[in-house]
Amino acid sequence: MFITFTFYIQMGKTYLGEFEELMLTMVGILKEEAYGNAIVQEVKEQLDRKLNLSAVHVTLYRLEDKGLVKSHMGGATSERGGRRKRYFELTSSGISVLQVLQEQRLKLWKLMPELKIARS
Fold first, then answer.
1. Each residue of 82-117: pLDDT tens digit?
2. Going from the N-terminus, what domains does the chain have, and what CATH number goes with each?
3. Max CA distance (Å), the chain
């Protein structure tokens, strides 16, 4: 069973769904290595969840339209047949959204004392 949260950003009246939150979080985790395939691989490794690369790209572009990430093109490489990668990074708004989401999640988890957060 999955619980999906939608985050409402008051200033721009923007909604952030679960997959958008995941993509925003992955961009923050991967930092300068945040591009489509790297995000797919990291989610697979960390969460054992398979993602569609096209869905990742569409979501990243939507986050860019919302001002939460920005992108730039990297240099062409021979291993990619001369194609360039589009890299994504968090904007200050994206960082703020992640901080608010973290605060909200922690607040909710504290309301369930019988489910202690285990540290590994």
1. 678 999 999 999 999 999 888 888 888 888 877 766
2. 7-110 (1.10.10.10)
3. 54
Task: Identify whether the C-beta of residue 9 lies closer than 8 Å to the C-beta of residue 97.
Answer: yes
The number of residues in the chain equals 120
Q: What is the DSSP string of 3-35?
A: ----EEETTTTEEE-HHHHHHHHHHHHHGGG-S
More confident residue, 80 or 38: 38
- Please say if the pLDDT value at position 79 is more than 90: no
Whole-number Cα distances in Å, 85 to 64, 65, 88: 16, 19, 10
Q: Output the pTM of the full model.
A: 0.79
55 neighbors 62 (Cβ within 8 angstroms): no
Cα distance between residue 36 and residue 56, in whole Å: 6
Q: Which two tokens stand for residue 39?
A: 């995000």
